[in-house]
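JOB MANIFEST
job_type = single_chain_structure
chain_count = 1
residues = 178
[input]
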Amino acid sequence: MPRHPHHQSLSRGFTLPELLVGVLLMAMAALVMARMIGALAKGSLYTARQSAALSGSRRALVNAGGERGLVWAAQEASAVRSLDASTLQLVLPGPVNADFIVEGSSVLVKTEGGVDFKQASAISSMTVSYYGMGADGLISQSTAASQASLVQVVLTVKGKAAKDRTYSIVSGAWLRNR
């Protein structure tokens, strides 16, 4: 039978089942990509918050925006008025004392001369230890800042939830003029 040029094949496009399968596959791929992007954004945000908390804690130990940090104050202290996991009260040279307090909302606050300065957030505890060197050359923990030659400060930074890990930041320094 001869073919006529004006007769054309009926298979020009996709059938309805082929279109539905294609749309379904694209929707599934879009769903998977959306979940991956969401997880990436959530992880990035958590990492950014944790990095900010850790860097803020490091600054609080040494120097927080022009304010002398916890290690500096512990170095300069002539005596310790109070020391526990949430409070450090120091007698500094001169008329002003410095108090470092971890408040209930996990914020390390420095009070100097009646003025409060927020030092860092996400702090769950702080530990300050003084060490002295005896005549025999052995290092022992001291209870008096005026008799110590080394100070060690440990800040514990907590994660977002109770199941997250905590980070301990340790800093120490030889005491000045000792």
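[summary]
The mean pLDDT is 76.
Residues 50-174 form one domain.
exit_status = 0
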